[in-house]
Design brief:
Length: about 210
């Protein structure tokens, strides 16, 4: 059931809230060969004490200078956990919404990419147009448009921030494809033996900045 003498595969699904990441992760867990654990943002938010909430779920534009250093550390702890599971031969799927929309740039994504150096990582951009995101927000949370008919600013900020720098091994559009179809594309990408370099390239961005 576990990989012998080699690390488990890591699949990171990066996208906005309501883009369909969790649904894809569930399909991966239920249908891919081997043991797949979901070590995504929601799991770690659930473990966060309320006084530090939402922890790593802090949305772009919601500046909390006192909390942000802890958020950096919590992200690093999450990725260290991902690395440990992979080194033990366990496959990991991660649904996350990376951004750098803090009070000052925090460089969290390059830091996290460095933690997974030398491990097999497939970075997937989960795209979804604003119109579809709004439909899902209304259906799920009954949270829709602003009184003037505009898209709420926090939703716009997510859409603008989450796909920066936009370096991926694979991208899927959940307004065009079902969760099962997205997972199938990921499966085929893993099976074709094509190298995955996105996370290493992002880690190198930190080296260049330093």
């Amino acid at each position: 059931m576990l990989h012998e003498n080699k690390p488990g595969q890591i699949v990171i699904l990066n996208g906005t809230p309501r883009s369909g990441k969790t649904s894809i992760a569930t399909v991966i867990q239920n249908t891919f060969d081997g043991v797949w654990l979901n070590l995504g943002v929601d799991r770690f938010m659930a473990m966060t004490p309320k006084r530090y909430y939402p922890g790593i779920g802090l949305r772009p534009g919601a500046h909390c200078p006192d909390l942000e250093p802890l958020i950096v550390t919590l992200y690093q702890a999450m990725y260290e956990s991902i690395a440990v599971h992979s080194r033990l031969g366990i496959n990991v799927v991660v649904d996350v919404g990376h951004h750098d929309g803090y009070s000052v740039p925090r460089g969290i994504l390059p830091k996290c990419a460095g933690i997974l150096k030398d491990l097999p990582v497939l970075l997937v951009g989960v795209r979804c147009p604003l119109e579809t995101v709004m439909e899902r927000r209304i259906a799920t949370w009954n949270m829709g448009y602003s009184e003037d008919g505009s898209v709420p600013r926090p939703v716009v900020l997510w859409q603008e921030s989450v796909h920066v720098p936009g370096i991926y091994d694979l991208e899927v559009d959940t307004s065009q494809l079902s969760s099962e179809e997205c997972a199938d594309l990921i499966r085929k990408r893993l099976e074709n033996g094509q190298s995955s370099t996105a996370f290493q390239r992002i880690a190198d961005m930190r080296t260049e900045a330093d």
